[in-house]
Design a protein that fits this description.
The complex is a heterodimer. By secondary structure, chain A is mostly helical. Chain A is 68% helix and 0% strand. Chain B is flat, with a radius of gyration of 23 Å. Classes of the chains: A mainly alpha, B mainly alpha.
């Protein structure tokens, strides 16, 4: 057994170890996992990136990485399309109001519930405000809160799962039973309960959504940690006196990054759905802030009048963003599992997916 | 087998106890001394543990408390709302299974064909669309525009009252079923793909079995086993979906009651219902595991 992580400058042993991992990452701290998983590139585990000997080599490395990144974009059209839609929707919500000016402060009852027409491409809502402008405004809240809640949930779940999986035994049993119990209560029900106990402030909303969604991440990361802790380099780190926290943060978590990154995208998709549901139920974002769920909530109250544009516009927006994040997640998972394109391997990747989606104990 | 069953039952008991602990812990956190309100004034100055044990005693004795708002016990509210939820979730889940199993199988057999891509796109779509949007769109088109079906769920009481009103039951069931199909079909596709890659399928083909025969006798039968697990695991999701559907279609089932209680700060009702759902989910998960063990001789043998 070689102490691979103790010698970050020697490439080969690290690549060998990472090759055995089956998880490919361009670098442990790479900010762009989408560009990382070129099929030829092999991942590496924790530790600072090897410093190339010269500037020329660095340029070549960057060029190579860019090429691999572009190849990856071509190889995983699902992830690319998902990412593109996410960026487009974010630009629509955050940059759109700079181009498309609307009055979001006044009520125009004479203009209420107008269908799509020139001047109001998506019609107006029950307050006579422009639906397209509301859509951008509401989208800012939806996307912002969901992104924060999703990342928070993934972080919390990753830590919980890594600790449970790494330590195993009693700690694992107790921690996973707690997760089982929390998962048994449907998230919506738990959220209703929590939001009726606490005043629904924005910060509380984010914390509560994260607090009820981290469980799936915890299960996935635990499964990963269970196999990772048996790896030789982890054993080596332990033998050399690495403490539990150090091993988890430096060796387990970075190597589970593939799983975690994929999970973040699903958590964000999930958070958008949960936030919209809570707002639709009147327990989410509070007036005067609105999100897409609030818009549909007011629209369902007048549904019998048939103002379809008031439901369709935010409904389509939610669906598109959720689908985009799900596509991104599915694409990234394909990329990280680095399965080839032949049938057997792809089927095996689908098997992994099955286990991901409905993790059995 | 017995040892496995015993261990699994013990686990389920632990999970149920934790559910009660979480539920009561939340009650304790509620403002205005809600816990004492549920337990009676004598318990106002008791420690958490003492209060919890008193409450657990009540619950085990079948006493879920009284609504703080309606002049009714939580048990009575449960009895009134349970049948509607049972019909809604039962019919939708059955329908979802009947559709999702063949759909998933077809997708797996015709992997990466146009049909597969189309169906994958559809399941994606229903996965990403919140049930209240899907239901609203169905109402707009089928109820308000075309007057085919009612925009509101069945309002008559009892299982019989709900079942005998198919015109009003259609849209809520369709909404919940479509959402559930999206979950089930994706799972079924993966499960069937898993089976397709197995050696016994190859062996069956090598023995000269026709493709149809191989798919039905070997692939379908083997991929049905995980469906049992799926049913157990998707219980919370189905109940969560039912909650939204009940509220949208004004069906006064369990989800509708929880929502009303949450909005009106009627803690005994919210907690009682949450507890019942949590325990049902834990039991469902237990039954799924036991069912799986009974169906799959490998599990039965390995853990006996």
């Amino acid at each position: 057994m070689t102490a691979n992580e103790a010698a970050p400058s020697s490439r080969r042993p690290r690549e060998r170890v990472a090759g055995a991992l089956g998880v490919s990452l361009a670098g442990a701290g790479s900010p762009e996992p989408a560009a990382a998983p070129a099929r030829g590139s092999r991942g590496r585990h924790a530790g600072p990136a090897a410093s190339p000997p010269g500037a020329a080599a660095q340029r070549a490395a960057i060029a190579g990485r860019t090429r691999r990144g572009l190849n990856a974009l071509r190889a995983y059209p699902l992830a690319t399309a998902g990412a593109a839609i996410v960026v487009a929707m974010a630009a629509f919500c955050f940059l759109g109001p700079l181009v498309y000016h609307t009055d979001q402060a006044h009520v125009f009852l004479s203009q209420a519930n107008l269908g799509p027409r020139s001047g109001h491409p998506l019609g107006t809502d029950g307050d006579g405000q422009d639906e397209l402008g509301r859509l951008m405004n509401g989208g800012q809240v939806s996307i912002e809160l969901a992104a924060i809640a999703g990342v928070l949930a993934a972080l919390l779940g990753s830590l919980w799962g890594a600790v449970a999986g790494y330590f195993g035994g009693v700690a694992d049993a107790v921690m996973m039973r707690i997760a089982d119990a929390a998962i048994a209560i449907p998230a919506v029900v738990l959220l209703l309960l929590l939001m009726s106990i606490y005043q629904p402030s924005t910060a509380m909303l984010v914390v509560v959504i994260a607090g009820t969604s981290w469980l799936s991440t915890a299960r996935l990361v635990r499964a990963e940690a269970l196999t990772l802790r048996m790896r030789e380099y982890v054993q080596a780190a332990v033998v050399m006196g690495g403490g539990g926290l150090r091993v988890i943060l430096r060796h387990i978590a970075p190597n589970a990054v593939g799983t975690i990154v994929v999970n973040v995208t699903f958590q964000i998709a999930n958070s958008i759905l949960i936030l919209a549901t809570l707002s639709w139920l009147g327990l989410g974002v509070q007036f005067p802030s609105i999100d897409w769920g609030d818009m549909i909530s007011s629209a369902t109250e007048t549904i019998s009048d048939g103002y379809w544009w008031e439901i369709l516009a935010p409904g389509v927006a939610i669906t598109v963003v959720v689908l985009a994040f799900a596509m991104l997640g599915d694409g990234l998972r394909d990329a990280f599992s680095a399965a080839g394109h032949d049938g057997a391997q792809a089927a095996a990747a689908d098997g992994v997916r099955l286990a991901d989606e409905l993790e059995t104990r | 087998m017995t040892a496995y069953l015993a261990r699994r039952v013990l686990q389920a008991v632990a999970v149920v106890l934790l559910v009660t602990l979480i539920v009561f812990g939340l009650l304790r956190l509620a403002p205005g001394g809600a816990a004492a309100g549920v337990l009676g004034s004598g318990s106002a100055h008791q420690e958490f543990l003492a209060q919890y044990l008193t409450w657990l005693g009540h619950v085990l004795g079948g006493n879920l408390g009284r609504s703080a708002r309606l002049n009714e016990g939580v048990g009575a509210l449960l009895a009134a709302s349970l049948p509607r939820t049972l019909v809604l979730t039962g019919v939708s889940t059955l329908l979802a299974l009947l559709i999702a199993v063949p759909v998933g199988l077809l997708q797996a057999v015709r992997r990466n064909s146009a049909v597969d891509h189309l169906l994958r796109g559809l399941t994606y779509l229903f996965y990403g669309m919140p049930p209240f949007v899907l239901g609203s769109v169905l109402i707009l088109y089928f109820a308000i525009d075309k007057h085919f079906f009612g925009a509101e769920g069945p309002q008559a009481p009892g299982i019989a009252g709900v079942i005998t009103d198919p015109r009003d039951l259609t849209l809520p069931v369709l909404t919940l079923a479509l959402v559930t199909i999206a979950i089930f079909a994706r799972y079924m596709r993966s499960s069937a793909l898993d089976s397709l890659g197995q050696e016994y399928v190859e062996a069956a083909r090598a023995r000269g079995g026709g493709e149809r025969r191989v798919v039905i006798n070997h692939v379908l039968r083997n991929s049905l086993v995980p469906v049992v697990t799926l049913l157990g695991l998707s219980f919370p999701q189905i109940v969560g979906g039912a909650l939204v559907v009940e509220i949208l279609f004004n069906i006064q089932g369990m989800g509708w009651q929880i929502w009303q209680a949450a909005v009106n700060h009627d803690f005994p009702v919210t907690l009682g219902f949450t507890l019942v759902i949590g325990v049902a989910a834990a039991v469902g998960s237990l039954l799924a595991d036991v069912g799986y063990a009974l169906l799959d001789p490998r599990v039965r043998g390995a853990r006996s």
